[in-house]
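Bumping with the actual sequence this time:
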Amino acid sequence: MKKIAFFDTKPYDRTWFDILAKHYEIAYFEEKLNRHTATLTDGFDAVCAFVNDRVDAAAIDRMHRCGVQLLALRCAGFSNVDMQAAAGKLRVVRVPAYSPHAVAEHTMGLLLTLNRRLHRAYIRTRDFNFSIVGLTGIDLYKKTVGIIGTGRIGRAFAEICRGFGMRVLAYDKYPAPDFEYVSLDTLLRESDVISLHCPLSEESYHMLDRKAFDKMKKGVFLLNTSRGALIDSEALLDALNNGTLRGAGLDVYEEEAKFFFEDHSDTAVQDDTLALLISRPNVILTAHQAFLTEEALYNIAEVTVQNLDDFFAGKPLKNEVCIRCAGN
């Protein structure tokens, strides 16, 4: 029976893996995978990691020496993996799509909450304060939403927006059918809502910086359920302060690996930018939970287990990520 080391484990992770991966011997570790915890992989055939595990060259070298053959990411993104270092040492597979609708629906939830101040209304009525002063929103009908990245999640979000009667603009290096594509500058200039659905790369890092915010119209909503480092957080704060942004709905943060998926309620968080964002009444920050539906958790487990099965059976790996693979 092949042995799998499973890192950054939460109770919801085990629900489907315990059912679908019974033919593997799995050791669940609560610790995140990094160059230090990689020592725990000694004697394991494969490692299952998540989005905020730090799989750098040192971690890869340690796993390689421990005999690990495969890194199975139970997420779509792989920017946390040093793919250059993995070449020739570890095969890397991922789950390219588990529930685009889960993330798209969460994105719309952030927008609706921001726009209609649902979070503030909830707090007021819990205190028996039934005033509606300061809770005015806008009609989304006939407003323009700019979607950056038209992969499966971006397309799902576009369909939701069209259902609200919104005009959809799109920007993507690889256009898909049924979208009105424009330049990034045009999208920034014309959109009432901007939503990020693109992967993080050297090219997309801080794609929304001060120059980008300066091109936006006043009063735009910004949504990010993709990767935190797509946005320059300091520039984001400035855009909130000067009124460029009406509000920001964020499920990700560029320094989230230090905080997300853990309870820090009894500690003083040593990140002034994060603290300032959370303190803003027109910012909704969720802890990278956009994917978290029952359907998505099942799909993640199913595809991850299939990736493991294919590798150990010597079959082609359709979800492999490598620096020499076409499309990666």
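The tokens above came from a reply further down the thread. The chain has a mean pLDDT of 95.
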